[in-house]
Design goal:
The structure is a single chain. By secondary structure, the protein is an alpha/beta fold. The protein has 2 domains: 62 residues, Urease, subunit C, domain 1, CATH 2.30.40; 294 residues, Metal-dependent hydrolases (TIM Barrel, Alpha-Beta Barrel), CATH 3.20.20. 23% of the residues lie in helices and 27% in strands. The strands form 5 sheets. Strands 8, 11, 12, 13, 14, 15, 16, 17 and 18 form a 9-stranded parallel beta sheet that branches. The protein has a 6-stranded mixed beta sheet with strand order 3-2-7-22-23-24, with no helix packed on it. It has a 4-stranded mixed beta sheet with strand order 5-4-1-6, with no helix packed on it. Strand 19 and strand 20 form a beta hairpin. It is globular and about 65 Å long.
Length: 377
Amino acid sequence: MKYIAGGKIIMPDGIVTGRALAYNEKIAGLTDDIPSGAEVIDAEGRFVSPGFIDIHVHGYMGEDVSDGKAEGLKVIAGGIIENGVTSFLPTTMTVSEGEINAAFDSVRSVKEKSRSWKGAEILGVHAEGPFINPSKKGAQAAENIKKPNAAFIMKNADIIKSLTMAPETDDDHACIKHLAAKTDILLSMGHTDATFEEAMSAVEDGIGHATHLFNAMSALAHRNPGVVGAVLASDISCEIIADTFHIHPGLFSIVAGLKQKKLVLVTDCTRAGGMPDGEYSLGGQPIFLKGIECRLADGTIAGSVLRLNKAVDNMLKHTELPYEAVIDMVTINAARIIHEDGRLGSLGAGKDADIVIFDDEINIYRTIKGGRTVYTV
């Protein structure tokens, strides 16, 4: 048995001090007694948290999921582990069907290995597209957009954990209804120009989430609430990119107050993440990184270079929320909506020993995956 002592331990029912967290491959629980000679990590007053989960990440350190390279996935996983991310959903773009299939196959080839490699574990794929609305395509390539096709998703249901689509392009919501009935895939509306009524109807038929709330969707207006209004008025979960660029930080508290346990922080990170300013690519299109902004040549926002630990820090700095509430947004909230909360998302006894130690500004000092230290400063 190993122990972490001297920390502020973020447990499901609050922050605990003065006790130690015992673990091996799984969390054993809190204790007051550490045996003589035991392996002990001194957290030195820092926070001890469940490992972070990113359900929307396209790339990092020059690599992109849509390249369809197993080695690239390993680079991404090894990079984001340094940001406290212990599990993630590699996210594909609206690229050609052949490229999407190649990306799915690359994830299949390493998914099981990822539980023991020196990086974040792959939980499955987030397919962002190709069933989106051309009018809200953002940085997605218009020529690769397709009508919703449940058969294509069913062929890959073994690897897809989340699907982003525009519900108004799905005739009679046939695809949504089929997937909701036959799979546990998280069906998310995004890159959508649906009306409020269309969005609410899609929620009734099986949509359970919204991809990067506010971005690439019909906006909230007082006579036309749009998709944003439907998300805020319904009980579905949603994600935000809390980099202070994609949405104004003044909205952080409003969304958190309305969505509470249904709010998840994501990065939507591209291959430019962790890299210097310059030109990169996303979905076959050139993107240009300057500071925290990624854009196409025409100025369209194209993903981000956000680190998930920085998203947590931004949320804390721009709200009055307590640490444990914000940490939920990158741990148990995310685990719950993709049906992984049985083993991930908290430091409860019996959960996987995925643990992060960080300071007040969410600088990561140690990342533990399955009881093994895989990153330390």
